Amino acid sequence: PSPCRVAMCVGKCSRIVGPCLLVLGTLSVAANILLLFPGGAFKYLVEGHISKDVKVMPGVWGGGITVLLAAAHITAVGWRCAGCSDCGTRCNAFISAVLSKLALLGAAACFVLSGVGLTNGPLCFYNASEHSRGHGTLWGYPFLDAGSQEPDARAENYLYDRRTWSICLEPAGVVAWNVVLFSLLLLISAAEMVLASLQILNGCLGCLCGFCEGK
């Protein structure tokens, strides 16, 4: 294909990828913020009864800020270069490729940490007498402390056996809240990784051909 045609494709791709990453990054931040308020209640955050995996906030800095920085640059440059003849796009394409690499790393970190959070399960007030290790009710990780099971077995047991979710007495519905939002973060970060990888390739092509369509 001619350099002009490649430049047009690169520009159009940037105007699709950028807004998509903006939406995904915003959703990632929103999902992680919701995890801080299980069941929509504020008191658990104030009391410090929030899962350690949630406190890391991978959806904010990983799938959120790094992705939004790249998305803002990609979107701005993509639209600014629509139909222009000379706007320094090779330099901007290089910057977009670098930012996309950071976004890829951030999304990958979000994916891994969300998977860990999903495997460990939520922090909740539960009846420890249902476990062989303790008695009475206490704050802890009932699914993380489930005997000597391997992590994958623990995750499979509680994720696919909803009868075990009732062990958590507080916050109300915290297991479903945790599972849904961490699963959403997994899907969002996976999509971000795909788009960021696409934009890295796109940015490299832009470095060679630019992406101003009016050349």
UniProtKB/TrEMBL annotation:
Membrane-spanning intervals of the chain: 21-40, 60-82, 94-116, 175-195
Main location: membrane
Record keywords: Membrane, Transmembrane, Transmembrane helix
Membrane topology classification: Multi-pass membrane protein
CC terms in the record's Gene Ontology section: membrane
Family per record: Belongs to the L6 tetraspanin family.
Protein name: Transmembrane 4 L6 family member 1
Lineage of producing organism: Eukaryota, Metazoa, Chordata, Craniata, Vertebrata
